[in-house]
Specification:
Elements (H helix, E strand, L loop, with lengths): L9 H4 L4 H7 L1 E6 L4 E5 L4 E4 L4 E4 L3 E6 L5 E5 L4 E4 L7 E2 L7 E6 L5 E5 L4 E4 L4 E3 L5 E6 L5 E5 L4 E4 L10 E2 L3
Length: about 170
């Protein structure tokens, strides 16, 4: 699910991208207090840290901004990478047990990902640790550390204690 433009007048507000780029549409976007990162449908990566989007190196399908101004991304081969706020390159995160399809970063810097196997994983600074059942499709982390999961059945779950060895997940009605 992509958007042709995430707000009205984007080509006017961000001329560095140009109207032609926006017509190709945005694939994913992640924002923090310090930066906004996005990926184009062609897997291009863009970053706005000072009011102007700039094309960055790399090719990512999914992206989320880290509170330090950097970004976490998933490439076309489903591997996870990190781009620090002062780095000029992406660094692949080792310890990834498998291929991934989504990533979410919280205001506290907590990193969660959804594996292609449908499980959610939490990054502990060295590797990703399996944390949930096998029905996750998308993940994000709230400002107080709660982890939100959209399941393949389009239902929604939240864990308000995600750092526990076995987090409790509450399925929301609806």
């Amino acid at each position: 699910k992509s958007m042709s433009c995430f707000f009205d007048g984007c080509a006017t507000k961000y001329p560095s991208l140009g109207a032609k780029h926006w017509k190709k549409s945005v694939q994913d976007v992640g924002s923090s207090y310090k930066a906004t990162w996005l990926t184009g449908r062609n897997n291009s990566v863009w970053s706005d840290v000072s009011g102007t989007f700039k094309k960055m190196d790399g090719a990512m399908t999914r992206i989320d901004a880290h509170p330090n101004g950097g970004a976490w991304g998933i490439d076309t081969r489903h591997r996870i990478w990190y781009h620090g706020p002062k780095d000029k390159k992406w660094t692949q995160k080792t310890g990834s047990p498998l291929e991934f399809k989504d990533i979410g970063v919280g205001h506290g810097g907590d990193v969660w990902a959804v594996g292609k196997d449908g499980y959610t994983y939490q990054y502990n600074g060295k590797k990703f640790i399996k944390k949930s059942n096998k029905t996750a499709w998308r993940v994000d982390v709230g400002p107080k550390g709660a982890v939100w999961i959209v399941h393949s059945s389009d239902s929604l779950s939240v864990s308000r204690n995600p750092d526990d060895a076995k987090p409790k997940w509450s399925k929301l009605p609806g």
